[in-house]
Amino acid sequence: MRLINRLLVLISIAMMTACATPKRGDAQYAPVMPAYVQGPQQHPDSIFQSSTAMFLTEDIKARRVGDMLIVTLAERTDAEKTSATDTKKTTSVDITDPIILGTSAIKNGNAVFRNNLESDQSFSGSGDTTQSNSLTGSVTVTVVDVLANGNLIVQGEKWININQGEDYVRVRGIVRPSDISPDNTILSTRIANAEIHYGGDGTLNSSNSQGWLARFFNSSWMPF
What we know:
The chain has 224 residues and is mostly beta strands. The chain is built from three helices and ten strands, in the order αββββββββββαα. Helices cover 13% and strands 46% of the residues. The strands form three sheets. Strands 9-1-6-7-8-10 form a six-stranded mixed beta sheet. Strands 2-3 form a two-stranded antiparallel sheet. A two-stranded antiparallel ribbon has the order 4-5. The model has no long low-confidence stretch (mean pLDDT 78).
């Protein structure tokens, strides 16, 4: 019975880790379509048609809900940490033979109340970690909301199907219109509260990942 309970726990952990795999078409990263505004009725024979009009001085930068914006990924992080600890503690206590009523307590030639306590403790530890990450490329996002101060909330994703696997890039954050370049691009380092996710799914990604049972034995659930 105990073995069956353990197997059920392992299966539950495996199912939870499987559910964490992202899927294409997540509603949280879906584009928001602009609201349709009904304009004045135009005669079909009119020279000017607002639906196909082009303005030479129009600003192409994203500024309304539904507009697209190109995010240039230029992420790079480098972290290095070194720590060392060395402690030592020595304790010595010597209780001499007390004098009681002018004489010491002696039995069989040995002082009864005389004691000596010594303790020596030491600890030495060290750690060194180095991490470096780099992400370059581009992904097109859409404006999903315009804040009261004019800043834009953008989000979007890109999925690439290559051979037997899929790679994806997801971006979400707040953009200041003045940081958008004239060609309607912005560096990812200029996105506030940025959430940038890069990962993959498929055969190649699975072959580079530990199995669920190995992840269990390497997790905090393993008491040994």
